[in-house]
Specification:
Length: 289
């Protein structure tokens, strides 16, 4: 079996993956700003051809378009508004990173992308109904919550096969097995990646604590618990769930404190499935925009 890559090697190896979502923190700051940031926002979007194309296409779609077509990024930004613009950017940039081919955690190609998108949609839905977080923030947190698993699979897929063969007989949870065999786990990797890319501390907390939100810093606990709940429901729905998903338990205390009820979560499933089916086609392909 190939030797396990050490923690720093895993983090460094992901630098070779194109389109890492490092631009998102800059966009987040700009979209939270005022109209005086329009020029800088236009410049940042224009640096990425694929993102600029998606922004223009969405602005001229039937949903947003009027009699006059947008022919510039600046016009598209004004038409879409900051929240829609940021969602497009989050989906475009994170989505391209997540669809890079890897195997591990029992994934089929594209599974992590599907699962992360499902978590994002569940999180956005709960954010709107329960007012626990800004829906755009919740959506982005859902997309990036498991990036460490992608990085770990990219560097260590043969070791993940060994971990899978030893859970649950030797270890009670997948995270416990990663820590014992590797000396670190996917959440450590997620934390390092998000810190390296300059994400706000709240997102770093999501990546590190989402499996056990009771341990999260108090100021971040609501968003972390929101993603924990979204992850729980998304795992039940089954889109792209890895084998590790069957070895995790809900943090009942954190869910109760945040006001989550199982019947209300179940009641949201029809709307969530309708939203998911806009992005995940019947053939399994994923379309973020």
């Amino acid at each position: 079996m190939k030797a396990a890559a050490d923690f720093q090697t895993v983090v460094e190896m992901t630098r070779s993956i194109p389109c890492a979502p490092a631009i998102l923190p800059k966009l987040l700051k700009l979209t939270e700003g005022t109209s005086s940031d329009l020029g800088e926002l236009e410049m940042l979007i224009s640096l990425d051809t694929g993102l600029a194309t998606n922004v223009l296409r969405t602005a001229n779609s039937a949903y947003f378009a009027n009699a006059q077509r947008c022919e510039s990024i600046a016009d598209a930004i004004l038409r879409l508004g900051s929240k829609t613009l940021y969602r497009i950017a989050a989906s475009t940039l994170t989505g391209r990173w997540l669809v890079h081919p890897v195997r591990g955690y029992g994934w089929e190609p594209g599974d992590l992308c599907k699962h992360s998108l499902c978590v994002a949609i569940c999180a956005e839905t709960f954010a709107k109904s329960m007012h626990l977080a800004d829906p755009s923030t919740a959506y982005t947190a859902g997309l990036i919550h498991d990036l460490g698993k992608f990085a770990l699979a990219y560097a260590n897929f043969s070791v993940l096969d060994d971990i899978a063969s030893r859970v649950p007989d030797e270890f009670g949870t997948w995270r416990e097995a990663e820590m014992a065999i590797l000396g670190y786990d996917s959440m450590d990797v997620t934390k390092a990646l998000l810190e390296n890319w300059g994400f706000p501390s709240t997102f770093v907390s999501v990546g590190y604590y989402y499996s056990a939100p009771s341990g999260a810093p108090e100021q971040d606990k609501m968003l972390v618990t929101l993603i924990h709940a979204a992850k729980h429901l998304a795992t039940q729905l089954g889109y792209g769930v890895g084998v590790d998903g069957f070895y995790s338990n809900p943090d009942e205390s954190a869910l109760k404190d945040a006001g989550f009820r199982e019947d209300e979560m179940d009641a949201a499933i029809p709307d969530i499935l309708t939203a998911i089916q806009r992005f995940i086609r019947a053939d399994g392909s994923v379309h973020f925009t």
